[in-house]
Write a structure and sequence with these properties.
Chain lengths: 140, 116
């Protein structure tokens, strides 16, 4: 496969109940393309965490998934408030999510740690008041 | 353990995935915090929870789980049942509390031969 496969999704930030729908779709696509289950698992969990984060913190955004020969790249972009302290956000258990989010089963401060755990590369570009772009790569 | 045995042990009502009842599962986890499920679960086929929203089904899907048990008579919405059907996940409801449901399944052998 030399052609790069690309998928684009608009993530609706107004409706928490639909959060994660793009990740479910990506997982389905990767299954159809017969990727290794462990790869599918890593990509979909990392993307799902990122998608939930965008809905909780940034009122949605966009998700782009590129399938290359040697890696799968996930780019999540939002125009949210930005992250004040990325290092802190990476720590397990640190969360700025509201209690209402915890009641929905999220906001345990495992989002970024999980995204790091399940990917081979994680880059966070963020500016306060401008937004955040998270780039993740999983090697094939 | 077959999913049908889980249904019988918990006196549960199946809401989706009747065709999956013969599927074998070896372990389970019990949590209302989907973040923790995403962080700590590996190779666990069953999720027991008291949380009711579509993220429960999506989280189970992400973790390749095949069965979700809603405890304490919590009832999933139509949307959740549809999501579960699309994802080949069996969904059932039990009147038992999550702790009790977990204990019954554990005593019956679920999760007991898994090494961490």
């Amino acid at each position: 496969m030399s052609e790069i496969l690309k998928f684009h999704f608009d993530i609706d930030g107004s409706d928490f109940s639909s959060a994660g729908a793009a990740s479910v779709m990506v997982k389905k696509k990767l299954r159809q393309l017969s990727y290794d289950p462990e790869i599918i698992r890593k990509v979909s969990i990392a993307m799902y965490e990122g998608e939930i984060n965008m809905v909780i913190h940034a009122n949605g955004g966009t998700a782009d998934v590129e399938i290359h020969d040697e890696e799968i790249i996930i780019i999540l972009s939002d125009n949210g408030p930005g992250i004040a302290d990325v290092e802190l956000a990476m720590q397990e258990g640190y969360s700025t999510a509201r209690d209402s989010i915890r009641n929905l089963g999220f906001g345990a401060g495992m989002g970024f740690p999980n995204m790091k755990k399940y990917t081979d590369h994680l880059q966070v570009d963020t500016a306060l008041g401008v937004g955040t772009t998270v780039t993740m790569k999983v090697k094939l | 353990m077959k999913i049908s045995e889980i249904r019988d042990l918990l006196d549960a009502k199946v809401k989706a995935g009747e065709e999956l009842l013969d599927h074998e599962v070896a372990s389970a986890c019990c949590s209302d915090m989907m973040s923790d499920v995403l962080a700590y679960v590996k190779d666990q086929g069953v999720l027991i929870t008291g949380l009711v929203n579509p993220q429960v089904i999506r989280t189970a899907n992400m973790m390749d789980m095949v069965c979700v048990v809603f405890a304490r008579s919590k009832t999933p919405t139509e949307e959740m049942i549809e999501l579960a059907k699309e994802s080949d996940i069996a969904v059932m409801c039990t009147a038992k509390r999550a702790f009790e449901a977990s204990g019954i399944l554990y005593m019956a052998g679920l999760s007991r031969n898994i090494e961490d």
